[in-house]
Amino acid sequence: MKLDTFFENFGLLADAPNGVQKLREMILQLAVQGKLVPQDPNDQPASVLLEKIRAEKKQLVKENKIKKGKPLPSIDSDDIPYSVPKGWTWASLAEIGQINPRNELDDETEVSFVPMKLVPTVLGDSVESEIRQWGDIKKGFTHFSEGDVALAKITPCFQNRKSAVMRGLKNGFGAGTTELHIFRPINDLIISEHVLLYLKTPKLIREGVSKMTGSAGQKRVPKTYFSETPFPLPPTNEQKRIVVKVDELMTLCDKLETRKKQVSINCIQLNDASIHKLLTASESNKFRKHWQRICDNFDLLYSKPENVNKLRQAILQLAVQGKLVQQDPKDEPASVLLEKIKAEKEQLIKEKKIKQPKLLPPIKSDETPYAIPDGWEWLRLGLLCETITKGSSPKWQGVNYVDSRGGILFITSENVGNYYLKLDKTKYVEEQFNKIEPRSILKKNDILMNIVGASIGRTAIFDLEEVTNINQAVCLIRLLNPNRFFELKYFLYFFNSSVCIGYMFDKQVDNARANLSMTNISQFAIPIPPKNEQKRIVAKIDKLMAFCDELEASLSKSQTDCDRLMEAAVAGIMAA
User: Is the domain of 185 the same as that of 215?
Assistant: First the structure.
């Protein structure tokens, strides 16, 4: 891509993922390579400017106004990273200015004090400061004056591009954090804002990181890298034109970024509104109307991977509302299913295989957030279960952790993810833990739910043959004869739905650290469809979730492809 084509497609390139940020970086790199503005043959060449600077420095040293610096190494051709236009020359910041100079002022003079937190990261942002007396800050801090260029040298401030031209200083002077390198132009022969562009280029940052020295968390860019790295020096007038052009293009980037953000906000709002209308539609004709609207605008509503999760939640919501599949009047209603469950539970109690559960209160009307179809029933979770309990901590029972060869698998909240167990990191405890806590020994098809902390509500099915127990942050939900009465994944999908997650956080015991009691879990109000409809719902959800996975992967690939095209465009322009 040629430079004129780049400018013609500026807005199009900005629409790529992270496109605006890449445009900003490319603008800076083009600027310091002499490709952003045309050269003017009438400009005095940079070689003449360099001789002026050398002569001026020599005179200032003679007048004892600045110190004579150490001899600088010559710039080797192997160190020059790219070619520059005719009229430019290669120098170093130490050659064309002063590095880390000191100020001489009266102690009573009011000046600006700039801590690291006030050094901006964004090009064009002004430097804020605090007012101090010079005598209070002249020792132990970095000195600078009006027009100096500052660069943060410590990680992560350097990587975050904390750098600025020091403008608007009180009485023209200041001091600040010791974690700065300072460049001071010689008698304004160099445009400070142009030097700042160079210091913010991705190439200088990337290579600077590789040069850092020090321990982890305290790494710094060496002074020699800052002062002696080859600097592409344009004629003074071209420096001015470059700064003006960069300002113009960065302003355009700001507008494009604002537009992108607004488009994204509009898309999210439209998505949320469309789903809300779909989920709250009380009549079938309105439901069909809103669903058709989503279908007609699907490419717009789901053009970003991050929106797909909202589609997943909408699918679950529709499922547990009875709106995802059609009802079949031939299905045995859930009320009949409940009678069978009661009968089996009474028999198990009679045979002393399970304990007599506590009586559960009837479900009140304000506990049911929406209407359900005929044949469905709102039921307390405890009515459907053989047991609901939680585990314990090994240290409370005097039990030790062991390696996998000498113990039993011990599942904690870290192992319970959304829908699936996460067993990449596992713990094992001594076998005696099962004798101490037999109630929380897991059986295949038990439902596990996190009930403490940030992971509250994550739910998965235990599908292992291995002997396993759980800790106190995990709840065991064992449905009564699940193969006979239920489609297990229906419960898994319900527990991961926004309806149930909202209920969990509403019923949590302690707002300081979310946790659920066994009583609250047993009192969950769950919409139960006929068993055959449970099967149809699960099959439909499985199919739609697979579609969401494919859609998300496709959108991610599309974004990756866009990124690659953007990188190719950048490479083409830089190589031109």
Answer: yes
Model confidence pLDDT, tens digit, residues 457-489: 899 999 999 999 999 999 999 999 988 999 999
Q: Which residues of 398-412 are buried (b: 16+ CB within 10 A; e: fewer)?
A: ebeebeeeebbbbbb
User: Per residue, what are the HEC states of 298-349?
Assistant: HHHHCCCHHHHHHHHHHHHHHHHCCCCCCCCCCCCCHHHHHHHHHHHHHHHH
Q: What is the pLDDT of residues 336-366, one digit of tens each?
A: 999 999 999 999 999 988 888 888 999 988 8
Q: Are 278 and 363 part of one and the same domain?
A: no
Q: Please tell me whether residues 318 and 376 are part of one structural domain.
A: no
Distance from first CA to last CA of the chain, Å, rounded?
8
Query: Helix %, strand %, coil % for the chain, to 5?
Result: 50, 15, 35
Q: Going by C-beta distance under 8 Å and a sequence separation of 6 or more, which residues neighbour residue 152? A: 116, 119, 158, 160, 162, 163, 177, 179, 180
Summary mean pLDDT of the chain: 89
Q: How far is CA 487 from CA 184, 375, 409, 481, 566, in A?
A: 74, 16, 27, 11, 48
Q: Is residue 45 part of a domain?
A: no
Mark whether 522 and 543 lie in a shared domain: no
Which stretches of 112-235 are DSSP H helices?
134-137, 192-199, 202-211, 223-228
Predicted TM-score (pTM) above 0.85? no
- Residue 395 is assigned to a structural domain of this protein: yes
Query: Quick one: tokens of 308?
Result: 């797909």
**Domain around 163:** 95-229
